[in-house]
Amino acid sequence: MAAAAAAAASKYTGKYALHPLLPGAAQSIVDVCTGRLRPTWVPRAQGIFSTWEKVYSCMPQYEKFLATTNRKDLKRIHVFMNEKAQARLGEFYLCCALRLRPEEVEKRKEDSQQLLDLAREVATEEVEPFFQECRDFVASYDWELHQRLDETTIWREVEDSLFWHHSFEAVSPEVYAAFLSSTLPPKAEWPARDDQAGMAEVLERCGAAIAEGAPARATAEDIYQQFLEASKTPVQASIRTAMIDHGIMAGEIVYRGLGDPSRGGERSSE
After folding, report:
1. Can you give the pTM of this predicted structure?
2. Does residue 136 share a domain with residue 162?
């Protein structure tokens, strides 16, 4: 696979064309690690999205609550400044109860006090902890890393191995550089771009070094795992943007990802 990737990359020439050994070495990492390593954040994100889908339809009620308060005075979501705000917030939590515990709402629908008690219970036990879980999940969001990863996606349209090379440079530049130095010969000894046999031989040695174990294998796995963990940044951005847009979390968004006209940087006050 690595030799084939190098051969494909060798077709692209020009001022900024890479030597085919580089995408070939990147493909060697992918060949060894794919299916063996997995991102640790996926189950957590899936849980967040599952709950968010349920409470999303209640957000208009939360926006009505915000309209009755001064956001600068809000220190915690459940703090309200007047009776009208309290009523609006109660409507929001009751809506969440209907989405999260529909059977319990059905049982208590004839008793307004029991419904209020249920709303408070859901607020304390589910909604507030959920919003905090969202804040914790997005706390490590790095918009610059997100942007760098977005900028590598163009290479996937050219050749997968080129995408992997640029992605590894984006998420783990120092470790990836060390890997290349330890598994490839000095640049002066690299075969010519059109020397397919020479490149295949070098990449075979690279792949063998990874297969044999430490330290090349450990380094390759470290690089690939860093990429998998960094791949959560678009997901973090999606959750963070939704929270800020709905007034659940303070912050200013400038970079929202590919396709957004305001791509650039970000300043946050959370």
Report:
1. 0.83
2. no
